[in-house]
Design a protein that fits this description.
Strand order of the largest sheet: 3-2-1-4-5-7-6
Distance between the termini: 46 Å
Bound molecules: S-adenosylmethionine
Structural class: alpha/beta
Mean pLDDT: 94
CATH class of the largest domain: Alpha Beta
CATH superfamily of the largest domain: Vaccinia Virus protein VP39
Helix content: 40-55%
Strand content: 5-15%
Order of helices and strands: HEHEHEHEHHHHHHHHEHEHE
Largest sheet: 7 strands, mixed
Length: 309
């Protein structure tokens, strides 16, 4: 099984972080250290790379991979929402660059037993952190019909959310929903035939919604963004890659609020306050045609970068 992770927008991230060889860089979504390897290669012995991930498999593989490059790195297993705690424990109060490459990695998606994919039959799990309690199985079997409907609408934007939630509740009256394929069947039965013929898997949006709920993805993203920008050194940059519009909206708005001065400078006598951050990417950066051909999974990626003045 293809189990590698191809780093997305790699050149754009490395260029965008503007790496100083003696700087401190924080990769909050280490994954298989695809981006981190390239960051570490660019650091001198005075530089430091800190990698964070909540997935124990990602930690183990990245440790082995980075050790082959240089010793000046530290790996911490944590949710990135605890970034302040992680840095405090390391005694670090400023960093020169931060990367967040959101979502799941290809190995997480492709390892059938993690339950992230509608393509493999597996227990309904979807936890990025294998020690976490809440699983997708618990969500589909214990949440009320109204809660499920609202998660599917809000996080999956699926227009058949109501009938899918209704059919889940009906199904579980007889039997717990245990596997990804049981859920896929319920989703398919909740959609009209013409919907099933459309391009894209009929369970894609509902699986996305469940994953967001299980891992509390949007809330931890908001909290982590507001924590991490405070640690940027002058000229330090934060680069974030998102993979769907809900994440991208959060990042775009947060960056705009931090960096963009509203109002008209020429409109004297209104005094316009200067902001502490500069928007490096006015528009999100998207993968090139060449990258899309090489790595179709990059298709939904958008990179946004901000700099501390
Ligand atoms: C898209 S992958 C990153 C891939 C990596 N840039 C590479 O090139 O190998 C996202 C990684 O971030 C981790 N992750 C996602 N959300 C997280 C969070 N809130 N806290 C810690 N790690 C998280 C996932 O476990 C996954 O390994």
């Amino acid at each position: 099984m293809e189990n590698k992770h191809i780093p997305v927008l790699l050149n754009e991230v490395i260029e965008g972080l503007n790496i100083k060889d003696n700087g401190i860089y924080l990769d909050l979504t280490l994954g298989r250290a695809g981006h981190s390897s390239e960051i570490l290669k660019r650091l001198s012995t005075n530089g430091l790379l800190i990698g964070v991930d909540q997935d124990k498999d990602a930690i183990k593989e990245s440790q082995e991979r980075l050790e082959k490059i240089a010793p000046n790195f530290k790996i911490i297993k944590s949710n990135f929402v605890n970034v302040d705690q992680v840095l405090d424990e390391l005694g670090i109060n400023k960093v020169d660059g931060v990367l967040m490459d959101l979502g799941v990695s290809s190995p997480q998606f492709d390892e059938s037993d993690r339950g992230f994919s509608y393509r493999y039959n597996a227990p309904l799990d979807m936890r990025m952190d294998q020690e976490q309690k809440l699983t997708a199985k618990e969500v589909v079997n214990t949440y009320s019909e109204a809660e499920l409907r609202s998660i599917f609408y809000e996080y999956g934007e699926d227009k058949y959310s109501a009938s899918i939630a209704r059919n889940i509740v009906k199904y579980r009256q007889n039997k717990e929903i245990e596997t990804t394929f049981e859920l896929v069947d319920i989703i398919k039965r909740s959609k009209p035939t013409k919907e099933l013929k459309k391009v894209g898997h009929p369970a894609k949006q509902i699986f996305q919604a469940l994953r967001i709920e299980v891992n509390n993805e949007l809330n931890v993203l908001k909290d982590a963004l507001s924590k991490v920008v405070k640690y940027l050194n002058s000229n330090g940059r934060l680069a974030v890659i998102t993979f769907h519009s809900l994440e991208d909206k959060i990042v775009k708005k947060y960056f705009k609020d931090l960096a963009v001065v509203e109002g008209n400078r020429d409109n004297f006598p209104i005094k316009v306050e200067e902001k502490d951050y500069i928007l490096i990417t006015r528009k999100g950066i998207r993968p090139s045609q060449e990258e899309l051909e090489r790595n179709p999974r990059s298709a939904s990626a958008t990179l946004r970068i901000i700099e501390k003045k």
